[in-house]
Amino acid sequence: MLDAMTYPRAFESAEYDRRVGLVKERAANAGFDLLLCQDPASMGWLTGFDGWSFYTPQAVLVHVDEPAPVWFGRAQDARSAEITTDLPAENIVAFSEPLVHHPEMHPFDELCELIDARGWGSAAIGVELDAHYYTARAHRHLVAGLPHARIEDNRELVNWARLVKSDVELAYMREAGEIVTLVMNTAIARLEPGVPQSEVIADVYHAQITGSGEKFGDYTSLCPLIQVGEGTSTPHLTWTSEPIPDSGLVVMELAAARRHYHTPLTRTMHLGAPSAEVARLAEAIVVSGDAALEAARPGATCEEVEAVWQRSLNRHGYEKASRVGYSIGLNYPPDWGERTASLRPGDLTELEAGMCFHFQSGVWLDDFGAAVSEPFVVTEAGGERLSDVARELIVID
Amino acid sequence: MLDAMTYPRAFESAEYDRRVGLVKERAANAGFDLLLCQDPASMGWLTGFDGWSFYTPQAVLVHVDEPAPVWFGRAQDARSAEITTDLPAENIVAFSEPLVHHPEMHPFDELCELIDARGWGSAAIGVELDAHYYTARAHRHLVAGLPHARIEDNRELVNWARLVKSDVELAYMREAGEIVTLVMNTAIARLEPGVPQSEVIADVYHAQITGSGEKFGDYTSLCPLIQVGEGTSTPHLTWTSEPIPDSGLVVMELAAARRHYHTPLTRTMHLGAPSAEVARLAEAIVVSGDAALEAARPGATCEEVEAVWQRSLNRHGYEKASRVGYSIGLNYPPDWGERTASLRPGDLTELEAGMCFHFQSGVWLDDFGAAVSEPFVVTEAGGERLSDVARELIVID
Predict the structure, then answer these.
(1) Minimal-distance CA residue of chain B relative to A83
(2) What is the spatial distance between Cα B298 and Cα B378, in angstroms, rounded to a whole number?
């Protein structure tokens, strides 16, 4: 058997104990006996469990009266649970292989048996009803298999518990920030007329994984994004092998992930001299973002930070309809956002030191767009930038 | 506005017409008026829609009486739908931005309004109940918002329609095969004692995206996977910066994606001379896989192909409990499998020319594992290999 010590754990066990304790307390306060977490970020945050197995049904169970969580998943991934977590052997439970993609049965049928066998069949169970991989079919099997349980949406309970980062988490966020600085600078250096987009992206991936010094990078929750010319009017197109043009806009949204902690970053480049219109938009974005980060202090609400940004942007003659930021941290594909606090009108979440956000200040007009974003951590002195790339429209001559 | 011609489409519109026609026929036969597809592979296969926006609720609707599908999603991604598809403008519908991650409302509330407004409120609607991003919460809002509809699981109807590839799809599968051959050979050349795992993976990513000649690669649905030493006993661990050891096993599962068509490939390497036990397992896997591919002809069933493999493996003293293959094609994270036909006991799907599979012949024992896999297309002459990397335990001295 693999000696657990040979796998480099991201955290000491005390950190996981802290998290499980916090989540049990929140679960009890919300009236739940048992939480069922399928979001790979929740699973990893609570136990250290890692591996690209989230395409198959799996879960971590947290019962308010039990010291350790229970991992449930595919047999071939149970070994990953042994290697990457400190869970006791009896809390690592595999489902039967024929249940994979079975037209009638589902792995959660056996999860229900496990829950029953532990005496939790009548529990108040909080599920992650909107987690990306918690499918409607999985939920249907859970509900059918536990007729005496009270099953309710836990409303991102674990995501909210993840919102304020501990010091050891912030260390990874800062390391990710170092890596994304290298990644973006690599991309900028590679942007020249005639270079295929795909070659820029190949170098981006290489820099993401090589990391910084001794610190390797993980895969990021979104792929590197590049938009060129009028393609900058929409943010999620991916690369082709079309050559970078002689003139015009390029927007890149790139990230780095350090032990799955993410720092996304967007920069806008211009090949050749920018038009006055483009320069004006970029300037408005930078100035307004600076003002917002200055306001991102403990005690301010999310909507107050957005209002500072929006007022400044409006003064420059622009507006941004979509939210201007969202919380970030440990995550897995398909999204690095935590699906909790957003910097937007109506979000009354009060900022606390240690919360991390991606201030995503993209403004997409009809024919083009620009963005100069920043990952930051809330501190008493305002939003502390986690990366260090020039905050301006980057002109490539 | 961006000229649609400047975005390199993967297929002519006739190919999409063929697919939509096939799906409408299958939907009608299954008793559905309307299909609601949220799986990004279904959305892309039906319309050409592309972009990393599948972390947010979106869908393609196919009504049996309508010529063109309807795209529904976030406003900032509607421009991607304009750029990447031929859908008429009135069939591209955006939801209101405040619905993103709203605690009470959901984008599907507006999808229900759209369905009602089109006169489909009492339709028989087939949903992808088990698609990765079709969350239990999305389904709940759909059901609540369409009280007169009959909403049922369409049981991967579009996935099954994707199973047999057209000639133009097979062209991309073969190109992906060319790229993955380069990718795996890059990884093998890089594997040397002392090299950090992360540096091998950085080069793998670079080769995946650079592609082959003029043919760039897309991101793959799973990240590159590397297991070292006793870590080879579980398949989905990802890299660290630990150095490649002086001796022992390394298993790598890598893929290439060409216009999102995937060819995954696994190889087992051994640093230094392998033990007799390891060599014996690898030999059994190769010989048994060859026999199975020989049997993968039109008319054979999936379980018959598996039985050929399993009988051969058993003769060598091994067994593999999990399925030995699954269908592959166009896909998006988190999985390159199509969630339809599996090479395993009980799967009576009859092979047809043009179906593609990943013959994933990994055998994981208690302390180590090995795999020598092959992506292949079913032809009259048996399974035609899509890649061309040495089929053997690769010894690195």
Answers:
(1) B231
(2) 7
